[in-house]
Write a structure and sequence with these properties.
Blueprint lengths: L5 E4 H30 L8 H25 L1 E4 L14 E6 L5 E7 L10 E3 L3 H6 L7 E6 L2 E11 L1
Helix pairs in contact: 1-2
Length: 158
């Protein structure tokens, strides 16, 4: 696997580190206990509890590996490095849809901490990528699943 930089805010990195700690100290123990109990049921060839516990163990280990990869390759975007002149990872941007006049506010974050339901969009998403590097007054023409949208940058803050 080729290492790829993961852009992330300090808050996002802390969440990743907290989840790694939880998975290693709590979830691993819970899953190990489930495996131990399932082993007590006897014949492993027809032991669905054992199979489920082993699958869960694999999922936990996979999640730990993914989070450790992200933490290892994290490029933390510090507020001191940001300015309010251009959109970048860590910026909060207010945009207006030119066609509809609707205004939206987005926090531009790295893909590791994107959460569209909370207004946190990835710098790699179509809208996030389209807004990167823009200044107040710029209009970004962005290809989205519904077609093309034109978003005017109204405000950038940190």
């Amino acid at each position: 696997m080729v290492d790829k930089d993961v852009f992330i805010t300090e808050e996002g990195l802390q969440k990743i580190e907290d989840e790694i700690e939880y998975l290693k100290t709590v979830r691993r123990k819970e899953v190990a206990e489930r495996i131990k109990v399932a082993l007590g049921y006897g014949d492993l060839s027809e032991n669905s509890e054992y199979d489920e516990a082993k699958n869960e163990q694999a999922q936990v280990e996979e999640r730990i590996a993914k989070l450790e990869y992200m933490a290892r390759n994290a490029k933390v975007v510090k507020e001191d490095d940001l300015n309010e002149d251009i959109v970048n990872v860590g910026s909060t941007v207010v945009v207006k849809d030119i066609e509809t006049g609707d205004e939206d506010t987005y926090d531009i974050v790295g893909s590791a901490e994107a959460d569209p339901l909370e207004g946190k969009i990835s710098n790699e998403s179509p809208i996030g990528a389209g807004l990167m590097g823009k200044s107040v007054g710029d209009v970004a023409e962005i290809e989205v699943p519904q077609g093309k949208v034109q978003l005017e940058v109204l405000k950038i803050s940190i």
